[in-house]
Amino acid sequence: SSSAVVEYKNGISFPSILGDSRRLLGIGLRKKSIFGLKNIDVYAFGVYADENGLKESLGEKYEKLSTSEFKENKECNEDLIDNDIDMTVRLQIVYSKLSIRSVRSAFEQSVGSRLQKFGGSDNKELLQRFTSQFKDEYKIPRGSVIDLSRERGHVLRTTIDGKEVGSIQSKLLCRSILDLYIGEDPFDRQAKEDIEHSLASLLQK
Ligand code: DAO
Ligand code: DAO
Ligand code: DAO
Predict the structure, then answer these.
(1) Contact in structure between 192 and 181 (CB atoms under 8 Å)
(2) Is the ipTM of this structure higher than 0.95?
């Protein structure tokens, strides 16, 4: 079917299924304060996971939990991050004045802090390898769709409006990106909660 979930504030729509079997678990907003003054909406995001992979990897562990047991169990998102389950985080750009320079510097802050958290302090080189791929000629106007996909073997594949811009095998990078959305200190807490609910209803029997 062609059902979709809409982010109402900015009128952005996310398909419920991506590809063959990636299911939408939740959507949210990435905001940023500029000059410490006002908050801008930078992009809306949707988090998807492959339903079969989810059940294969986590079904046994979670299918018997009751809803309240599931709620008390704080590990489900971590298990989703740690296991080799196909996932996509789709970003749909809202902010109309996004420059590659500001993407690079935001990336260095957000992803950089996670690379440091999970990988230690010697990840400057890895970080520079990524940000050097953000070519100044890329255009990311309002409405652009960026897919950050984790594929088998912890390969992070990035597409902009359906065109592949890079692919890199790194468990640390995959973990760091996913942590921004479903980890301990996520961009959007409500989105993380919604994702937990979706996981519960997909995994419980
Ligand atoms: O123009 O300085 C400014 C404010 C822009 C903030 C940009 C935040 C970028 C967030 C990353 C976007 C990744 C697609
Ligand atoms: O929101 O701070 C953030 C990080 C989001 C990760 C964005 C990755 C964007 C990669 C594509 C850049 C193309 C110029
Ligand atoms: O240096 O091995 C290499 C090639 C790396 C290509 C990396 C492309 C990164 C694209 C942006 C990903 C950010 C989430």
Answers:
(1) yes
(2) no
